[in-house]
Design goal:
Number of strands: 12
Number of helices: 5
Order of helices and strands: EHEEHEEEEHHHEEEEE
CATH architecture of the largest domain: 2-Layer Sandwich
Largest sheet: 7 strands, mixed
Strand order of the largest sheet: 1-2-3-7-6-5-4
Radius of gyration: 17 Å
Helix content: 25-40%
CATH superfamily of the largest domain: Bira Bifunctional Protein, Domain 2
Structural class: alpha+beta
Strand content: 25-35%
Bound molecules: biotin
Number of domains: 2
Distance between the termini: 38 Å
């Protein structure tokens, strides 16, 4: 991975650039990095705060020939790789909130957005978008994000090398991806569970049919979260966001 690296000063979103690169034949492992994004995208239609030079705003092109419904597994794999990379380069107490937010002391430091294109029930390609708030300081966040977002610099008390972290991430991702393609989701699931700050904790989420509250119990083979509600019912959550209580 990362044999071909495209680096930009400013883009709307590295995701958009990566989609375009796929269309012009870019191979698996190509990465796009930008100093800043003017229209960084988050999950569920949200925007992603991507100020200049302070973070890692990266998109990685993947072309696994797996069924479309395995996509959530890749999302969880990305979170495992990123969490392990961050643990290697700085001393912070980091964990994964389902499905793929990375939290330090309950605040979000990194987010992952997977966008895909499929064909005949198989994935044609996936763009893994990785946002890491590396060297942002308190004043770099708009007021409304301060209570729920943090950065590696804030949490570790010093500047963190973005180059070192990108390298560590690519190595971890390569290792996890090879493991996944060879052995399937089972080993990734175990690693995810060990890094999770979600399992065995009370959570709440809203679905089309109302709120679900309960204890997050486990992951299933597809990456869905099983929740045990107060009346003992097991409910699966396939997508969306959860709130840790
Ligand atoms: C989320 O937590 O909502 C996901 C955030 C993903 C942000 C990254 S930054 C690089 C890539 N380009 C984007 O526009 N978004 C992703």
């Amino acid at each position: 991975l990362g044999q071909k690296v495209h680096i930009y000063d400013e883009v709307d979103s590295t995701q958009t650039i990566a989609h375009r690169l796929v269309a012009s034949g870019a191979p698996e492992g190509t990465i796009v990095l930008a100093e800043r994004q003017t229209a960084g995208r988050g999950r569920m239609g949200r925007s992603w705060h991507s100020p200049s030079g302070k973070g890692i705003w990266l998109s990685l092109i993947l072309t696994p020939r797996i069924p479309v419904y395995f996509m959530p597994q890749l999302t969880l794999l990305s979170a495992v790789a990123l969490c392990r990379a961050i643990q290697k380069v700085c001393q912070v107490d980091i964990g994964i909130k389902w499905p793929n937010d990375l939290l330090i002391h309950g605040k979000k430091v990194s987010g992952i957005l997977l966008e895909s294109s499929g064909e005949d029930e198989r994935l044609k390609y996936v763009i893994a978008g990785i946002g890491i708030s590396v060297n942002l300081l308190e004043e770099d966040y708009p007021e409304e994000l301060r209570a729920k977002a943090t950065s590696l610099a804030i949490e570790s008390g010093g500047e963190v090398s973005r180059e070192g972290l990108v390298q560590a991430f690519l190595l971890e991702f390569e290792e996890m991806y090879a493991l996944y393609l060879e052995k399937g989701f089972a080993p990734i699931r175990l690693l995810w569970e060990a890094l999770s700050v979600t399992l065995k904790r009370p959570i709440r989420t809203s679905t089309q049919s109302g709120f679900i509250e309960g204890i997050a119990d486990s992951l299933d083979d597809t990456g869905a979260l099983t929740v045990i509600t107060s009346d003992g019912e097991r409910v699966k959550i396939y997508s969306g966001d959860i709130e840790l209580k």
